[in-house]
Amino acid sequence: MILGIDVGGTHTDSVLMQNGKILRKSKVMTDKSDLLKSVMNATQAVTTPEDIKQLRRIVLSTTMTTNAVAQHQLDPVGLIVMSGPGVAHGELPLHDQAKFVKGYMNHRGVEAEGVDEDEILALKQEFAKQGVKHFGVVGKFSTRSPAHEKAVQALLDDHAGHVTMGHQLSGELSFPRRISTAYLNEAVWRLHSQMADQLQSYLKQLGTAVPLYILKADGGTIDVEASRHYPVQTILSGPAATIMGVLPYVPTSHDSVSIDVGGTTTDIALFADGAPLLEPKGVQIEEHKTLIRGLLTHSIAIGGDSHVRVENGQLLIGPERKGSAMAFDGPVPTPTDAMIVLGLANIGNKEKAIAAIESVARDFGKTTEETAQAIMDLACETIAAKVRSMIAEVNAKPVYTIHEMLEGKVLGPSDAIVVGGPAPYMAAQIGKLLKMNPIVPGDSDVINASGAAMARTTVELTLMADTEERLMSVAEEGVLTDIPRGFTMDDLIEIGREKLENVARIAGAPEEDIEIEVADSQSFNVIRGTATTGKNFRVRLQIKPGLSKQAGKHAAN
Amino acid sequence: MKKKTGLVFFPAFDYAISPTHPEREERLLYTQDQVNEEGLLDFDNIFEFKPDLCTPEDINRVHFCVPGIDELVHASHLISVGGTLTAADKVMTKEVDNAFALVRPCGHHSMRVVHGTRGFCTLNMEAIMVEYIREKYGESHGIKKIAIVDTDCHHGDGSQDIFWHDPNTLFISMHQDGRTLYPGSGFPDELGGPNAFGTTINLPMPPNTCEEGFLYVLDEIVMPILADFKPDLIINSAGQDNHYSDPITNMKFTAHGYAVLNDRLKPDIAVLEGGYSIESALPYINTGIILAMAGRDYSQIREPDYDAEDQIQDPRITDYLKRLKEVTFNHWENREALRSQVYPDQSFHTRENSIYYDTAGIRESQVETVRTCSDCGGAVTIESRNESRPKRPIFAVQIPRFCCDACRDWAEEQYAAADKYTYEQVFLQDKDNDLYLEK
Predict the structure, then answer these.
(1) What is the least distance, in Å, from the CA of A67 to any CA of chain B?
(2) CA pair distance B147, B145, nearest whole angstrom
(3) Tens-level pLDDT at each residue, chain B (439 residues)
(4) What ranges make up the beta strands (E) of A114-220?
(5) B356 interface with A at CB cutoff 8 Å
(6) CB-based contact (8 Å) between A533 and chain B?
(7) Mutation test of the interface with chain A: which of B10, B36, B37, B290, choosing the one with the most A Cβ atoms within 10 A?
(8) What is the SS3 string spanning chain B?
């Protein structure tokens, strides 16, 4: 059995699952002042003490860190940045609070300018005076050589605070995003640690030592203890929970799209042969562009409760939500009212829904029935258009080899998985517009909780080897190691595989979920004069987002 | 001022002329690393676009491929040229204010007739783009006069050949003196054909010219001539091999200097040409050019091994460049009078060209004839022989854009009269009607 809990702003949902089926589900109110209580209530709502003994895992999805960022409830961070020449400091994120210091690496990870110890020690004193306890240390190209970040960390290190080094968070290149990511990691550090402590006492109270995971933005899980080092990865895990909840219904033999129609917005995600697409660089939260791996979602401000009205003879839906549908005593007409009028949805007060659409019909100059159909058509067409443009955008993404240019994959979804309140009423029409097969999963009211419950642990590793320098590096671990003569790409992949298996175990992956794939591998010659003096290998390994084997069988296959 | 800048980036990580050739897979690898690490694509005014493939029609507006496109052109060329056309489209449709095609392989040594690859180039990207713009947007967008400023270290002899008779294209090449570098041409007295005299301008600079010298030539010669010519569009044929670290040239230009150059020149479209210091120069130069075109702060662009003392220019170079300015303005201001001295009054002018294809190892000999014309650029015929092949020559007839009736009649007669016993292949390129015929 597995337990999935989604702590939202209003409700906390929970599901108890076995063999891919939901045994019990519940929705309780979230107590914002007491996470522990909310989680405990949600747990007790679906489990008996006997169930607890049979649990194999608990997975939690929470918007706590996300909300902290959105509401600017962030701790002060001492941000030390080694930029070197390049983009001007004033163009970098957080430049008004960063301390720019000496030292930088070039693109091959060779030191171009050293760190000035006295400068760092002086800064340390300044921070101590201000009472700053959290530090972000970020260098340009630190993923190629973390030596400077490590040197600064060593100088700052004492028991009074905590330091995040940029290279630990991602192996991807992007200095500005590395700055933002390291900053956020420290800014939510204390909050996340408190949550981890609370979750430990939750487990104690339950009287179980079952593995407890937290959902990340990429739809993967991480053991709650391991997550203490990377709190930033749990930011924006909300949309990921939904996508993971949809995943059992996504066919693995071809491409699909998922459409989550909410009250105010509709979120769209894409799947290539069953695997959800990731943001190319990382997710953005508020103004912060980060290197946090996350699932690709596009949103459009239209939903079941969007404000419907006529302006200058034109029917308009959204972008605002003024309240619930008039059938549920809301203030203004909505697409939900139209669906009730059309007899698609048998919910709420039908008379009030008819009155709502009649008021629109008067301005629109059509019958109530025709107006309801027009609202429905416009809502579906608007969503379908957004899906089409998202697919086009993904297919227009630049590629960098002739092979990909001429023979690269073109995404062509043939199934549309529609979830959310209005899903059952809209799926057929959206499917028809997109020429896709519509699928409406059951239990979509608790899809975030079931998504969290079923998600597997994800990890990644970025490796590079330079056979001329006879060195290999693991970006996220910040280590440089010697390699022997005759070192090959296969050797690098093999070493990476072993390392990543360990990383996965530490992150809490059960053995059966450790399926490592090569996400990317490139080999280049290193040339001096006119002679090939070595090879430059670049490899990215990952366990990609997917369903844990512990979750049981796949519904679509 | 901030500008919307388009970037068409195609590093062709799976293409090389040969494994250790300067034009090889990883040429733009470190540039891509730098662009990614600097986060340039996250700026709200910089947009990346996927290149389109160019078509045979695009190529046939400029080149005569012998024996044909299929035998000479690789997929990489179709993408790199296609990338420049994408950049042009984005600018012409105003999706962006300017664009940089950061593509490879390069193109500015490719001439009208193409028997193979020379100077690492097969198709002339800028020329194909110019004719594409004129064909697709010329009338609707009022684009007639175009200036190409070639800032590659090597003389842009291919572009010069293609626009030699075109009075509506101002071709300016800034390069290392041809007596010291491939292709050995590009002297100040190469000024264009009888119908386009003066719209070819060559600015050879001595080896070791520094940032100071480059910017002097730009500010004192290039910019005033551009202001006088008033082009509808400016293209930078943006080679990056003037850099002090380039392995196959001898100049001392800097990454910061390239940024300043593009900031002042303000090209509508920049296209990457040469530049083979792939680790020490290209990452910094390209970052600088992108920032400058986007109107961003590039003041902190500097190579790790930049040496301020090495940038002190030999005063003899400074003196030489001052004389170059005098000579150039003498030519530019007196081009009408000089024309009659160089090209005596006669109906046709013929020249013989011997062209060496270093990359392909081919020697081509050409006899080119242009009809003297005061109403248009003049119709041209070219008889061309690939000396390394025991075959008959080919015969190419070119009808220019904005062609007058007299030139058209003459050109069509030439095409009709050329027979297949004398020539292996006979071509007609009619730019006005966007037509390419072969018999």
Answers:
(1) 24
(2) 7
(3) 899 999 999 998 888 888 878 888 889 999 999 999 999 999 999 999 999 999 999 999 999 999 999 999 999 999 999 999 999 999 999 999 999 999 998 899 999 999 999 988 999 999 999 999 999 999 999 999 999 999 999 999 999 999 999 999 999 999 999 999 999 999 999 999 999 999 999 999 999 999 999 999 999 999 999 999 999 999 999 999 999 999 999 999 999 999 999 999 999 999 999 998 999 999 999 999 999 999 999 999 999 999 999 999 999 999 999 999 999 999 999 999 999 999 999 999 999 999 999 888 899 999 999 999 999 999 999 999 999 887 899 999 999 999 999 999 999 999 999 998 999 999 999 999 999 999 9
(4) 134-139, 162-165, 212-215
(5) no
(6) no
(7) B37
(8) CCCCEEEEEECCCCCCCCCCCCCCHHHHHHHHHHHHHHCHHHCCCEEEECCCCCCHHHHHCCCEECCCHHHHCCHHHHHHHHHHHHHHHHHHCCCCCEEEEEECCCCCCCCCEECCCECCECCCHHHHHHHHHHHHHHHHHCCCCEEEEECCCCCCHHHHHHHCCCCCEEEEEEEECCCCCCCCCCCCCCCCCCCCCCCEEEEEECCCCEHHHHHHHHHHHHHHHHHHHCCCEEEEEECCCCECCCCCCCCEECHHHHHHHHHHHCCCEEEECCCCCCCCCHHHHHHHHHHHHCCCCCCCCCCCCCCHHHHCCCHHHHHHHHHHHHHHHHHHHCHHHHHHHHCCCCCEEEEEEEEEECCCCEEEEEEEEEECCCCCCCCEEEEEEECCCCCCCEEEEEECCCCCHHHHHHHHHHHHHCCCCCCCCEEEEECCCCEEEEC
Rounded distance between C-alpha atoms, residue B60 and residue B438, angstroms: 11
Q: Which of A83, A92, A106 to mutate to test the interface with B (most CBs of B within 10 A)?
A: A106
> How do B269-272 and B98-103 pair as beta strands?
parallel
CA distance A418 to A430: 9
Q: A465 near A523, Cβ under 8 Å?
A: no
With an 8 Å Cβ cutoff, are A529 and B247 in contact? Answer: yes
Q: Residue A12, class by beta-carbon neighbours within 10 Å (0-12 exposed, 13-18 middle, 19+ buried)?
A: buried
Q: A410 and chain B: CB distance < 8 Å anywhere?
A: no
Model's pTM, two decimal places? Answer: 0.93
B197 Cβ neighbours under 8 A, 6+ residues apart: B191, B335, B338, B339, B342, B343
pLDDT score recorded for residue A445 = 87
C-beta atoms of B247 and A399 within 8 A: no
Is A530 touching B (CB cutoff 8 A)?
A: yes
C-alpha to C-alpha distances, B384 to A276, B362, B363, B379, nearest whole angstrom: 57, 12, 10, 16
Can you list the domains of chain A with their CATH numbers?
Answer: 2-68+195-235 (3.30.420.40), 78-187 (3.40.50), 456-551 (no CATH)
Ramachandran sector of residue B301 (left: φ over 0; alpha: ψ -120 to 50; beta: rest)? beta
Write out chain B residues lying below 8 Å of A532, CB-based.
Answer: 19-20
Q: How far apart are the first and last CA of chain B?
A: 53
A524 neighbourhood in chain B, CB within 8 Å: 13, 25-26, 29
A150-165 residue pLDDT tens: 999 999 987 668 999 9
The owner of tokens 């073109």 is: A410
pLDDT value at A552 more than 80: no
Domains of chain B with CATH codes? 5-336 (3.40.800.20), 345-438 (no CATH)
Report helix angle B315-333 to B335-342, nearest 10: 80
Nearest residue in chain B measured CA to CA from A106:
B304
List, in order, residues 6 or more apart from A442 with CB less than 8 Å away.
none
